[in-house]
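Handoff note, outgoing to incoming analyst
You'll be picking up this chain. Sequence as last confirmed:
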Amino acid sequence: MKPTQEQILKALNKLVRENKTELKTEKVELGLADDLKKLNTEADKIAVSVNKDSINLSKLFQELRNLSDDFNKINERRNDDIKKGKSTLKEINTILDKTEKQAKELGVAPKDIPNFSKSSKISQDLRSAVNDMQKYSDIKI
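Most recent structure output, in case you need it:
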């Protein structure tokens, strides 16, 4: 028996539908592959940028750590100098007071005593320096 015209049309329609479905699937698969290729390219660029920034940040962090160490060493030395300065200032002022008192008892002007004027000036300078340095003595980085 020969197929009827209607059966032939049904078979042809069925074949056309199957071919369209296969073509759509292949198109979707090709589109996904292109999307993955684009994303891979973008991801590679980002990875390179992140790695470069990480290296730069690491270098900057090490420089910052070195600066912090240097700062803390200098600050500790300065704090020691402040303590020594306070002690020396106290000694100078004690001796200046005694010298001034003895000079008055002897009827001599304190400024005529060797090193008195110089010690007075140094005392003022040291007091000023110690007071200025104390402003930052508690800073730690």
